[in-house]
C-alpha cells in the first residue's frame, strides 16, 4: 500500500513512518521544507513538498496513493506559549483540504488522528466511543474536524488519542522538571482521571488501522489504566526523589477512557499498558 503521511515530521509521524515501512508499505511524507527530506529518505520514505493548508500542493502528493494519514498538528509543546490558531486551522481547513484532494485523487482509505478530550469532563465514568461528545469550547475545531471526516465518502477511520507522552513529546520531561522544582501541583484534589497513550503504542494503532480498520470506525487509543493525577504525579515525584506534589488551585477535566473496542477490532495491545511501564 502506498501511504501519504501528513504530519510526517511531527511526533506521531516520526514514530509511524518507520513502522509502516517495516510492514512493507511505501510511504510518501508530506514536508513543508526541503531540508526536512534527508532523515525521511534515510528511513526509506519518499517525500513531497506541500502544506495541508495549501490545497494546491496536495494533488501531486496524493497521486498514486492508496491511503492518506492526517497526523498533522501544531500543538504547543510544554513550556511554549499557548498559541492554538494554527492547530485549529489544521483541524478545520486542513482536514477539509485533504479530504477533498484525496477524493479527487482516488485515494481509498483515510485515517484521522483525533483526541479523547472531546468527550469533556466525565468524572469517575470510564467512557467508550459511544459516549456522547461534550467538548469544551476550546476544542470546537476537533469536533468540526471529526464531522468533516464522517461526512466523507472515503473509507475513513478516526483514532481518538489520549494524553500523548513518550520520546519527542516533551511531556514527561516537563513533568519531571516541574517536580524537581516543586512546581508540579495537583489539579484540585488530584482525583481527576487522565488516560495516557505512549507515542509508540499510538503509532502501532495507526499502522493497524491504516491496514484493516473497517469503514466508518472510531477508536479510543489509550493505555489500559486510567489514572488519577494524584497517582500519576506522585509516581513521577517518587521516581526522581522529589517532594510529593501539593494540591493546586487549578482544575482539569476528569476523563478516563476505555480501549476495548480497539483491542477487539484490530488485535492491538499496548507495549506500555500503564504509566508505570511507560515512564520507567
CATH architecture: 3-Layer(aba) Sandwich
Major sheet size, sense and barrel closure: 7 strands, parallel
Structural class: alpha/beta
User: Reading side by side through the largest sheet, how are the strands ordered?
Assistant: 3-2-1-4-5-7-11
User: What is the beta-strand fraction?
Assistant: 15-25%
Return the string of H and E elements: EHEHEHEHEEHEEHEEHEEHEHH
Tell me the number of helical segments per DSSP (H or I, 4 or more residues long): 10
- In the CATH hierarchy, the third-tier topology is known as Rossmann fold
Oligomer: single chain
| Unreliable sequence segments | none
What would CATH call the class? Answer: Alpha Beta
* Rg over C-alpha atoms, rounded to the nearest angstrom: 19 Å
Distance between the termini: 35 Å
How many DSSP-defined strands? 13
- Estimate nothing, just give the exact number of structural domains: 1
CATH superfamily: NAD(P)-binding Rossmann-like Domain
Shape: globular
Q: Helical residue percent?
A: 25-40%
Mean pLDDT, as a whole number?
A: 96
Overview in brief:
This protein is of the alpha/beta class. It is built from ten helices and 13 strands. The strands form four sheets. It has a seven-stranded parallel beta sheet with strand order 3-2-1-4-5-7-11, sandwiched between helices. It has a two-stranded parallel ribbon with strand order 6-13. Strands 8-10 form a two-stranded parallel sheet.
